[in-house]
Amino acid sequence: MGISLKKARVIVRKTLQAGRDMDLKPLSVIVVDAGGHVQAFEREDGASPGRFQIAQGKAYAAVMLGIPSSSIGNMAIERPHFGASLNAAFDGKVIPVAGGVLIKDRKGEIVGAVGVTGDTSDNDAAAALAGVQEAGLEGVA
Amino acid sequence: MGISLKKARVIVRKTLQAGRDMDLKPLSVIVVDAGGHVQAFEREDGASPGRFQIAQGKAYAAVMLGIPSSSIGNMAIERPHFGASLNAAFDGKVIPVAGGVLIKDRKGEIVGAVGVTGDTSDNDAAAALAGVQEAGLEGVA
Amino acid sequence: MGISLKKARVIVRKTLQAGRDMDLKPLSVIVVDAGGHVQAFEREDGASPGRFQIAQGKAYAAVMLGIPSSSIGNMAIERPHFGASLNAAFDGKVIPVAGGVLIKDRKGEIVGAVGVTGDTSDNDAAAALAGVQEAGLEGVA
Amino acid sequence: MGISLKKARVIVRKTLQAGRDMDLKPLSVIVVDAGGHVQAFEREDGASPGRFQIAQGKAYAAVMLGIPSSSIGNMAIERPHFGASLNAAFDGKVIPVAGGVLIKDRKGEIVGAVGVTGDTSDNDAAAALAGVQEAGLEGVA
Question: Which InterPro entries does the protein's record reference (chains A, B, C, D) (predicted)?
Fold first, then answer.
């Protein structure tokens, strides 16, 4: 399934570190594997209790459609009926908003995604991208 | 319910072939019977893992309402409340976007639908239509 | 995600062939990848329309828990409350009955699962196992 | 809600360490807060993809009822109708099986729970208990 716990841990830590460096609000960070299943998650102190679902929804959306959640967000803005039907087709588990960033390995294959929530969607995505890159992988935001 | 596995297989293969001839992104193709139930499905290498739900939603929508999913998409754009209620009434299994193409037999009876996803919706529909026609059946996109 | 469409097709065909060789009732066969997502599916003529869900539930259960669905069935018999909670925790998508067979590659890694339904559960599993083996992979039933 | 990310991390690591010391199969470990919401999660390499749901269900059950999940398991065995209704009342998120261990602070207040899955339920619970204790907190298994 392509992403080790060791690597996932580094991504989570580097993303949280990026959040602190950027002076963002408390973040929650998930790493899902290439099948959209949770590998690791951490929620910073001060983050609200529902942040797991949001982080998961962003990362899950990215992996299931093979594009970053920001792009899915644009599709949902341009075609609201498509956004609504995606939510429904995936049992409400898709969050079509920036912050779900694809993780690719050196061959360019998708090995999972990071999902970040807590600050503005664009800041969430920036922190996620920084986290993936500092872990030595390619991120697609 | 009117569509044999043998015929469904031909449709899947011809649709995938059409995708390759048109140089489209990796496609996922479903054939559902006249009751909207899965008869055959194939997902090409490189397609994201959530493509089954999208292909199914397009084909299911077409069969359940008896019109191609592109027409349902137009209805959802013109009357968003109707699109939303379709999602709810069909337990989230309807994707009102082009790519769900009705299959008719020689008598003009609907025997099922093909659902395609992977490229733009219009290209998905074009590949589906080509697949149905090359299988010697009539498609309504 | 470890299983190509080409390989999945071979497994489906070999499993259906095994069913015919064993003189079983019409079968439905799914191949899911290592994340539990549909790669290929075929339903033989004469099979009832709800067979997709059953085939999927067997294969999905095997992949999500990393053991063949027959073993999950035994757990559900010994501890019914655990079987019930599995159904619920996985949104009703788990079928804890024989016929969901793990697929391993040469390194022994799980690359997906086959799910078969149509005859007795034990026959379903036997056909699945034969299909995986004839495709040159290791099956765990 | 009483459990810091720093503390949650220590519990996750100590629990995984306990699993390795006890030579258990790959474990998945969740820490939820006093409201049952995910604080941290890690899934070891080799663990099957559905382990998040199971770990969560054990920890969630413990916190929501204020007793370890092993006790809820006993209740479900003695009164199956109660077990079934718990599943329903909590939207399928309750796994009434050993491995969901309450975490108490020095005042004896419940601050969260650990959920562990991967080996036998009893071993899962033993690893969770060890993890909580080595983090300097009181566990109730």
Answer: GlcG_carb_metab_protein (IPR052517), PduO/GlcC-like (IPR005624), PduO/GlcC-like_sf (IPR038084)
pLDDT at C2 over 80: no
Check residue B135 and give its pLDDT: 92
Q: ipTM, 2 decimals?
A: 0.95
Residue A97 and residue A121 in contact, taking contact as beta carbons nearer than 8 Å: yes
Choose among A34, A81, A89: nearest Cβ to B53.
Answer: A89
- Provide the pLDDT for residue A2: 75
- Among A90, A102, A98, A86, smallest CA distance to A123 is for A98
CATH number, domain C5-140, options 3.30.1360.120, 2.70.70.10, 3.30.450.150, 1.10.10.10: 3.30.450.150
Alpha helices by DSSP H, listed for A66-120, are 69-78, 80-89
D89 near C CB under 8 A: no
**Chain D neighbors (3+ CB pairs < 8 Å):** A, C
Angle value at C-alpha D87, between C82 and C30, nearest 5 degrees: 60
Tokens of C82: 């655990």
Q: Which residues of chain B have pLDDT under 70?
A: 1
SS3 C133: helix
Comparing CB atoms, the residue among D50, D73, D94 nearest residue C90 is D50
Q: How far is A96 from chain B (nearest CA, A)?
A: 14
Query: For position A5, what pLDDT does the model report?
Result: 97
Reference D25, options D98, D127, D140, D114; nearest CA is D127
d(CA C125, CA B101): 35
Instruction: Say if residues B126 and B13 touch (Cβ distance below 8 Å).
Output: no
**Domain extents in chain D:** 5-140
Q: In what order do the strands lie in the sheet with B110-117?
A: B138-140, B100-104, B110-117, B28-33, B38-43, C38-43, C28-33, C110-117, C100-104, C138-140
Q: pLDDT at residue A1 above 70?
A: no
Contact between chains at B93 and A89 (C-beta distance less than 8 A): yes
Match 């959530």 to its residue by tokens: B50
- Are C36 and D48 an interchain contact pair (Cβ–Cβ within 8 Å)? no
One-letter-per-residue 3-state SS of chain B? CCCCHHHHHHHHHHHHHHHHHCCCCCCEEEEEECCCCEEEEEECCCCCCCHHHHHHHHHHHHHHHCCCHHHHHHHHHHCHHHHHHHHHHCCCCCCCCCCEEEEECCCCCEEEEEEEECCCHHHHHHHHHHHHHHCCCEEEC
Name the phi and psi angles at D106, rounded to 5: -65, -25
